Amino acid sequence: MTTITTKTAPLGRRIEVSGVVQGVGFRPFVWRLARHHGLTGKVRNVGGRVEIEVEGSARDLDRFRAALESEAPRRATVVAVTSRDTAPTGYSSFVIDRSETNHAGTALVAPDLATCAACLEELFDPDDRRHRYPFINCVDCGPRYTVIESLPYDRERTSMRAFPMCPACAREYDDPSDRRFHAEPTACPACGPQLQLLDSEGSAVCGDPLEGAAARLLAGDIVAIKALGGFHLACDATDEAAVHELRRRKRRPDKPFAVMVRDLEVAVTTFRLSNEESDLLQSWRAPIVLVGDRGYLAPSVAPGHQRQGAMLPATPLHHLLTRAVDRPLVMTSGNHSDEPICTDNDEALACLADAADSFLVHDRGVVARYDDSVTAVRRGGPVVLRRARGFAPEPIPLGATGPPVLSCGGHLQVSFCLAVDSRAFVSPHIGDLDNDMAVTAFREALERSTRLFDIAPSLVAHDRHPDFLTTRLAETLGVPTVAVQHHHAHVAAVMAEHQLDGRVLGVAFDGFGLGEDGASWGGEFLAVDARDAVRVGHLRPVAQPGGDAAVREPNRMAFAHAVDASRLTEARALFSDTLTDRDMDSLAAQSRSPRVAPPTTSAGRLFDAVAALLGLGRTPSYEGQPAILLEQAADATARGAYPVPLDTHQGRLVIDTRALVAAVIDDRIAGRSVADISGRFHHSLAGAIVAVCDQLRERTGLDRVCLGGGVFANGLLLDEAAERLLARRFEVYWPQAVPPGDGGLALGQVHVARARSAVAEGHG
Predict the structure, then answer these.
(1) In 3-state terms, what secondary structure has residue 216?
(2) How many angstroms separate the first and last alpha carbons of the chain?
C-alpha cells in the first residue's frame, strides 16, 4: 500500500462519487489529487462507486471536491458527487484502501477502451519492455467489460487473475507516479497473456504468431482472430478472391463487411471522410463508422454499396497486425450468419473450422461476448446503429428514478435493458433470436448482467407480440410483466434518451410491429406520453402477400403496391425480365386476397416495394437490404417531388401512397434514372411526414416530434424530415445513443413500464 505523509487535518469530509468511475483510473487520480492539495485520508471502491474520506483545510477540501468533477480522467463519467462534513480522525497519510463488494444497484462498468497514445508509443518502441506486446494497456485503455467477472473492479475479480504480475509489473501497479498505478489488466510479455497461431486442425504453427498470421493474410488466407469480446474473421480487403471466399464460407452473400485500416492516414486515402467521421473513427470508442467509398477495396467487400464500414484498430493486437500486413483488412464477426460470435478457443476451432484457414488465439478468457459497434454521422453528430464495444454497458441517464425493471426487446437486433434508480443499462447487441444458440446467448448475457449490476427486477417489460421468444422468456421469469406496443416503445426510447416529459408526437416508421388492433403496423403517427400512445395517423394499409414471405421477397410488396395504385400493367413490364407471366399473375391475385395478404401500414415494406420496382434488392439476403440500396442509389439533389395526398379514416390522418407509387412506376417506365426517382421518393416521403405533423399540431397542440424505428436509420430520410420539421418550428428528436431500430426497443419498454408502474402505485 502506497502512502504519503502530511500534517494532521483540521477538518474531515466524506465524499461519494458515482458514475463510470471504476476501470478508468479514478482511484489513482484521487490519490494524486489528494497529494496535490496536501490532504490525508483514503479512497476505495465500494460496489459501483468510489468512496473517499479526506481531511485537510476547508479551502483545500473545497478545491479537492471541485476538481473531482472538473479534472476527472477523460474515460470517467461522473454522474454525482455527494459530500458531508465529518469529525477528523487524524489520518497521517492518504492511501488506496481495499475495495468492498456491496454494490446493490449502483454498479457502473466501463466499456472496453481503445489503445491510448502512450501505450501505442511503447508498443512500437524497440527499447520498451512491452515492445510489440499485443496486450499492452494502462488506466486509460484496454479491456474492461470483457474481463470483469464481478464488482468491485479489482484484478482478482477479472479473467486477468490467471496471470500473476511479475515484479516489474507489480512495481508499476504500486507506483502512484506510474500510469499503470492500479491498472487491473496490466501485464507484460513476462507475466501476461500470450499469442499462438494454430492451423485449421488446431495444431500450433512454429514461429512468431503475428508474423505468421500476417503472411497468411497476404497469401489470401482467412484468419480467425481472437479479439476483446470474441473472434473476428479477417482477410485482405483488396483481394477479391479472398473476400469472395470468405462470403461463401460465412454464408453471407451480400451484407457489407467492415474494413480495418492501420491509421487515419490510410483511412483518408481508402474512404471518403468528413471531419466528424474522422473524429469518430479516432475516438476512444473506436467503432465501425459508415463512410463514403473511394472504390479502392475489392468489390465483394460491400457489393452494390456506395458506403463502407470503416474502423481503426481498437487493440494492440490489431495495431500490430494491420501494420504487419499494411493493407486494409476485412474484419467481420467470427461466426456464421445468424449465430452468436465465438468467444472460446475450442468453440472457435469447432464452429469456424469450415470458415478459417488458421486461428490467431490467446489465453486470456473472454468473459462477455462483445461485437463491434456500428455508427454513422447524422446532422453533424454521431448516432449509434449497433450498440456494443465502446458504448455498452455505459448507462443511459434517465430523467427520473424508478423501480428496477428488465425489458427484453423484440425479436430482431435484440438487446435487453436493465434499469435501476435513474440509469438504464442497455445490453450489448445480441442479434436476431432465430435459433437456440442465439436464445442461449441472450440468457447468458442476461444472467451475467443481473449478477454484475446486482439488479433484481420487480417488473419485466416485453413486446406485445405473443409469439416473440423474448415475450415467452419474459413470462417464465416469475416477475410481473407488462406488454408494450412496439411503436410506442420506439417513440418512448427517444423520449427516455432525451429525458422528455409530457406528450410528444411520435413518428414510428419500421418494418413490423403488432398493432393494438392486431394488425401489422409500421408507418405510425402517435400522440405519446410515457404511459400511453394514441394512434393519430398512419400510412395507407396495403396488402402484404404471403405475410412474412413478403419480407424475403420484395417483389410481393411491389405488386401489392402496384395493384393498389392501379399500375399493375406497368409493373408487369418492369418485372418481365425476372418473373414469368404465371408468377406475376399469382402475385397480382394474392395482392387482391385478404386471406393470403393481410393489410400492413409498414414503411419498411413501402421501401421494399419501391426498391424492387426500381430493380434494387429483389432477392435480399439480409434484413433491410432493399431499403439500404434504395437510399444509397438516391440522388439527394434530385429536384421535384411526387404527390402524396393526405386522407382521413376514423379520425386518423392517412398518407395515401397510391399517387406516390404510381409516379415512381410511371417515371421508371419513362426512363427516368433510378437515382433521380429514389431522390424524389425520399423527398416526397419526408414532405408527407411534415405535412402530417403540421396537421396534428393543429389538432393536438403538440410541437415536439420524436422520430424512431428502423426506417430512420436511413440518413437521407432522417436528415430531410428533421430539417423540414425544424424549419416549421418543431422541436425534433431522434435516436443517438441507442439504435433507431429494434436494438433500441428495450430502452423504450423500460420507460413505458416504469411510467405505468408509477400510476399503479399511485405516484403518477
Answers:
(1) helix
(2) 51
Contacts of 393 (CB under 8 A, 6+ apart): 109, 111, 145, 425, 426, 427, 428, 449, 453
Q: How would DSSP label each residue in 1-36?
A: ----B-PPPSEEEEEEEEEE-SSSSHHHHHHHHHHH
Tens digits of residue pLDDT in 667-712:
999 999 999 999 999 999 999 999 999 999 999 999 999 999 999 9
Q: Is the pTM of this model over 0.85?
A: yes
280: three-class secondary structure by DSSP: helix
| Residues in contact with 516: Cβ distance below 8 Å, sequence separation at least 6, in sequence order | 485, 535
For 451-462, what is each residue's pLDDT tens digit?
988 899 999 999
3-state helix, strand, coil in the chain (%, to 5): 35, 20, 45
The DSSP string of 338-404 is: TSPPP-SHHHHHHHSTTT-SEEEEESS---S--PPPEEEEETTEEEEEE--TTTTTPPEEPSS----
- Three-class secondary structure of residue 49 per DSSP: strand
Paired sense of beta strands 231-236 and 223-226, if any: antiparallel
Q: At what angle do helices 625-633 and 715-727 cross, to 10 degrees?
A: 60
Cα(749)–Cα(736) distance, integer angstroms:
17
44 three-class SS: strand
Task: Answer whether 37's CB lies under 8 Å from 84's CB.
Answer: no
- 229 three-class SS: coil
* Residue ranges of domains in the chain, CATH in brackets: 11-96 (3.30.70.100), 195-362 (3.90.870.40), 539-696 (1.10.357.160)
Specify the 3-state DSSP secondary structure of 711: helix
Distance CA 554, CA 621 (A): 11
